[in-house]
Amino acid sequence: MLREALCTACLSIVPALTLGEDTGLGTLGGGRGLVQLRDGSFVHSDGRGGVLVKLSSAGVPLQRIGREGSGPLEFRRIDWLMRVGSDSLLVFDLENGRAVTISPSGRQSRQFQMAYPVTSASFLPNGNIVANVHFADSRLTRMPVHVLDRRSGAVLASFGHDSNRVYDAREAWAGWRELTVDPAGTIWTVRRNDYRLEAWDARGKRLQSLERRVSWFAPYTVRARLSPQDAPQPHVERVHADSFGRLWVFIAVPAQDWRKHIVERAATPGILPGYEPVSLSGIHDTIVEVIDTRSATVLASRRISDYGWGMVSDSLMYSDAQAADGVPRYRLWKVGFAGGSTSRGR
Question: Rounded to an integer, what is the distance from CA 313 to the centroid of its chain?
Fold first, then answer.
């Protein structure tokens, strides 16, 4: 069980920049993918439009890479985007069933097959990839975390399900794990509907489990439908290991005025009538917590009035900043933590 030794004053989160424009080169589509390159510039993946958008460190649009299609440097649905080494990019393209590496010069250098959704991924120290992949193979469905060969995409190990817990495919986000890798190579995973961090080695041996029990996040099994009577359920959006081995956890919680930011949705073929958010930051705030895993201590906890997507570096996080016009935008925040323990040398 995690204990608290909070130093909220030690955690600084300050708005820095907004990315995205109404029209033209800097128009950003939907998608969780934002990475920062070594020169400070950013690349955003448009999950629906089949394109990567490069912006300067000041947010000035520089270049659009790729287009919709199935040929070289063409994409159909980008699930996940990662920076590789010296500013190459690894792009997971679900509908084309492949993961493509793009060189710093903008050329496609290699690819491997990946025909299943990837919702979180990170690199291991040896260059292999650990990912939350939703395989259709019944042998792999129960195991949400997979180590993939960096060149071929072959599955080297599969793990992540608690052997003492009955697997239930009806559970909210049953196969979904947010994950990160700390400087020692330890893999950290967390369910979206249960604030419990688990540590694993690359062979799938569970090393540690840290539970966080707080009044504002009770674990749940059934994912409730959004309605004016029921507040949005909290969930873990992302986890990030910094260079000191501390974990930064982003938890979406209901905003105080969330009811003002939902609209009724009419029934459509295959979809029941209901309610949907006008914007994610309208119905959610984010609680950012910093955790020292070695002492099992929550060092800081801070709430912001945006839907936090996660970190792009140890000193920069990003959140949803979609305006009333519905055009996607992202807000960048400078973050810093001064004081407390670190987990280096785990």
Answer: 13
285 touches 254 (CB < 8 A): yes
Q: How far apart are CA 322 and CA 95, in angstroms?
A: 26
Confirm if 335 and 315 have CB atoms less than 8 A apart.
yes
**Residues 100-118: tens digit of each pLDDT:** 999 988 888 889 999 999 9
**Number of residues that this document lists for the chain:** 346
DSSP reduced 3-state for 233? coil
257: nearest Cα among 289, 224, 235, 279: 279
CA distances in angstroms from 102 to 49, 54, 84, 99, 107, listed in the order given: 17, 13, 9, 10, 5
Distance of CA 245 to the CA centre of its chain: 18
Q: Which CATH superfamily is domain 3-337 in?
A: TolB, C-terminal domain (2.120.10.30)
Which tens digit of pLDDT belongs to each residue from 282-334? 999 999 999 999 999 999 999 999 999 999 999 999 999 986 667 889 999 99
CA distance 200 to 144: 13
Whose structure tokens read 């099992």?
A: 296
Give residue limits of the domains in the chain.
3-337
Written as one string, the DSSP assignment of 300-320 is EEEEESSEEEEEEETTEEEEE
Those residues of the chain that have pLDDT short of 50 are 342, 344-346
- How far from 294 is each of 5, 35, 244, CA to CA, in Å? 14, 28, 11
Answer whether 58's CB lies under 8 Å from 10's CB: no
The structure tokens listed for 138 are: 């019944």
Distances (CA, A) of 37 to 67, 73, 215: 21, 19, 39
Residue with tokens 């982003």, as numbered in its chain: 250
First-residue to last-residue Cα distance in the chain: 18
Q: In whole angstroms, what separates CA 50 from the centre of its chain?
A: 19
Location of structure tokens 């970190």: 311
